[in-house]
Write a structure and sequence with these properties.
The strands form 2 sheets. Strands 1, 2, 3, 4 and 5 form a 5-stranded antiparallel β-sheet that branches. This protein has a 3-stranded antiparallel β-sheet with strand order 6-7-8, with no helix packed on it. The two termini are 28 Å apart. The mean pLDDT is 84. The protein has no helices and 8 strands. With 107 residues, it is mainly β.
Length: 107
């Protein structure tokens, strides 16, 4: 173990992943879909994965959701709350903090 890191797997997450959060074996990625979540053709999203004890990722079906602020959100970060049942996305340009409940199907 020690200080060694070993790549276990890579998964496509979408266009321009900028933030990741993990809670109890569930991983969510914030995809900017362009530089800084800004631009006319930008559709930022969050997408979920299950992570095994060995670090292998499995996409959660139907977990991808659009960021509510859309192309002008300026989304910056995704995080779980302490209990892992709510995702929080900061949207700097839209001046909002969006929350998403994580139900049993999404976790």
């Amino acid at each position: 173990m020690g200080d060694d890191l070993e790549l276990v797997e890579t998964e496509p997450t979408g266009d321009h992943p900028i933030s990741i959060t993990v809670s109890r074996g569930v991983v969510y990625v914030l995809n900017a879909s362009g530089s800084n979540c800004m631009g006319p053709a930008v559709s930022p999203t969050i997408t979920g994965y299950r992570m095994s004890a060995q670090g292998e990722l499995t996409p959660i079906p139907n977990s991808t959701r659009p960021v509510l602020g859309g192309a002008l959100s300026g989304c910056t970060q995704v995080s779980f709350n302490p209990t892992g049942d709510v995702l929080v996305v900061t949207e700097k340009a839209a001046d909002v903090i969006s929350t998403y409940t994580v139900g049993a199907r999404m976790a």
